[in-house]
Every structure is written in structure tokens, then in C-alpha cells.
Amino acid sequence: MNQMLIKATLETLYMVFIATSFTVLFGLPLGTVLVITSKGHILENQALHKTLSYVVNMARSLPFIILMIFIIPFTRLIVGTSIGTNAAIVPLVVAAIPFFARIVESALYEVEGGVVEAAIAMGASEWEIIRQVLIPEALPSLILGTTITIINLIGYSAMAGAVGGGGIGDLAIRYGYHRFRLDIMAETIVILIVLVQLLQSTGNLLANSILKHRKR
To answer: Gene3D superfamilies, alphabetically (predicted)?
Structure first.
């Protein structure tokens, strides 16, 4: 049973790592575009901003378990199957991108307008403002936001076990629930709690480290 717990934990870590990578890859640009196209920002475009905002809100309104079932055809198109860890990654990414985009949006809005105005006055281009002002200034909040996203993905990955997604959730359901093994259920809960605590502590440490470095 220890081997099964280790295997399930590794599957969960694999799903979350890959899903987080794709989420940041697509969610960071999406959240950035939401900010820079908003009213009064460096690339104001109300039509694009409202359209993207509507799409993000619509995607976030679906419960993960429903989303996972709804996009099964898309999942099969991408990975060739709707069962297993690779298949679970697709709905994880689809669910996490709009969530992370909103976190990015909130983090970038925290950057003081005066900093952006100063960069514009010095002749910085829109890309330079994004890369050298917005992202660096919002970095501590972005790190904390990424931490929250990863923790959510761990929760989503556990739910993916309900439909054969593999990982800790799958183990808890197949052995802990269906076979009435409360010891296995308890062990999976402990593993999830430990993972969340480690991730949150690491995220807090990184964010605080950057803030302390800036104050020097």
C-alpha cells in the first residue's frame, strides 16, 4: 500500500506541475492583456477587454467536475483518451487559466499608476512597461497568486480521481471510499495537507524575500 500511495502522490505532483506550467504560460499573458486593455491603461481597448473579461467569467462559472465532463471530446482530441493522468491535465489547465488570469489582473492593478506614468515619460514602449515595470513590480503578488493556483490545482486533481484521473483522489475513491479503507482515506488527506502547507510556506517565503530585498 505504501507503494500505491507513493505512486498516487507522484501522479498528483506530475499533473499539478504540468498543469501549472501551461496555466502560467497562457494565464499570465491573458491577465496582462486584461489589464493593459482596460480603460486608461497603456493599450486601452474596451471592446477587447470586455470580450476577454466575459469569456474569463464564463469559464470560471463552471464547476470543475462539470467542466471536466463537458470537455471530454476536447480532451480526447488533445491526448487521445479521457482517462488517466495525462487526460486529467487538460481540464485542469482549462479550469485554472481563467482563475489565474484574474489573479494576474488583480496583481498588476496593484502597481501604482505613477510608476507606469514615469516609464511612459522616459519613453518606454508598451512591451518595456509590461516586462520591466508591471511584472517586476507585481512579482510578490504574482508568486502568491501562483501558489494559490497550485493549491487549487491540487484540489482539482483530487476531484479528477472521481472519473479515473489518477493521483491521490483516484486512490482515495477506489480504495478509501469504495472499499471502506478509512486508513487509506486518512493517509491521502494527510498527504494533501502536507503538500498544501509546504507549497504555501514556500510561496510566502519567496514573496517575503522579494519584499525584504526591495526595502534594503
So the answer is: MetI-like
Please name the residues in contact with 31: beta carbons below 8 A apart, sequence gap of 6 or more.
100, 101, 102, 103, 104, 105, 107, 108
Task: Write down the mean pLDDT value for the chain.
Answer: 88
**113 Cβ contact partners less than 8 Å away, ≥ 6 residues apart:** none
Residue 5: band (very low, low, confident or very high) from pLDDT cuts 50, 70, 90: confident
pLDDT score at 172? 75
- Average pLDDT, integer, range 29-34: 96
Pick from 149, 157, 110: nearest CA to 20 = 149
Nearest to 193 by CA among 175, 172, 179: 172
Find, among 95, 101, 84, 94, the residue nearest to 12 by Cα: 84
pLDDT at res. 163: 67
CATH number of the domain enclosing 30: 1.10.3720.10
Within 8 A by CB and 6+ apart from 146, the residues are 20, 24, 100, 103, 203
Task: Indicate whether this model's pTM tops 0.85.
Answer: yes
Quote the domain boundaries for residue 85: 2-215
Report the number of distinct structural domains present in the chain: 1
Residues 6+ apart with CB under 8 A from 145: 100, 103, 104, 106, 107
